[in-house]
Amino acid sequence: MRRPVVAVFVLVLSLTGLSMETTARDGDADAIREVVVLAYVNGIHRLRDSVAVRSGFHPTFVMSIRTSDGVQALTLDAWLQRLKLDGKPNPKKVEYKILNIDAVGNTGTVKLELSIDGKLTFTDFLSLYRFPDGWRIVNKVFERH
């Protein structure tokens, strides 16, 4: 009798777009979420604070940017130079939604949507590794909307 209930549940999930993917263990998910919010959402977008950014990004971080003729790799230092973070809070309203956190062993990924002033601006895919001092963002690819 349980099979029809499970089948209906799976059908409903597939029709609503929800995912049944396995996510990180709770402790890992919390630690990953904390790093992403502190260093990426707050550090880059809300507070514009390079100290917060560096606390959660690995020094060898690379962002891959799709261009018309391929992919450009941007280091953390080069990205921070472009952003010209001044430590002054962003006057725009920055909201985020974490869509998925997944981790296996010492490797994790995060998919999130970032909206600025109510408009979906980026869908980001962040890759992380766990180091002895905690999770660090090592890579970013994104879609600009």
Q: How would you describe what is shown here?
A:
With 145 residues, the protein is an alpha+beta fold. The chain has a single domain, classed as Nuclear Transport Factor 2, Chain: A (Roll). Helix content is 35%, strand content 43%. The chain has helices at 2-16, 26-46, 50-56, 76-83; strands spanning 57-67, 70-75, 94-104, 107-116, 119-131, 134-144. A six-stranded mixed beta sheet has the order 2-1-6-5-4-3. Mean pLDDT is 88; it is low at 5-22.
List the main descriptive attributes of the protein structure presented here.
145 residues, alpha+beta, Nuclear Transport Factor 2, Chain: A, six-stranded mixed sheet, 6 strands, 35% helix, 43% strand
Secondary structure tally, helices: 4
| CATH class designation | Alpha Beta
> Which structural category do the helix and sheet elements fall into?
alpha+beta
In sequence order, what are the helices and strands, one letter per element?
A: HHHEEHEEEE
Distance between the termini: 45 Å
Radius of gyration: 17 Å
**Can you give the helix content as a percent range?**
25-40%
Second CATH tier, the architecture: Roll
- Give the neighbour order of strands across the main sheet: 2-1-6-5-4-3
Task: List the domain count as a whole number.
Answer: 1
β-sheet strand percentage: 35-45%
Say what the CATH topology is.
Nuclear Transport Factor 2, Chain: A
Would you count the extended β strands for me? 6
Approximate shape: globular
Indicate the mean pLDDT: 88
- pLDDT < 50 runs, ≥5 residues: 5-22
How many strands, what sense, and barrel or not for the largest sheet? 6 strands, mixed
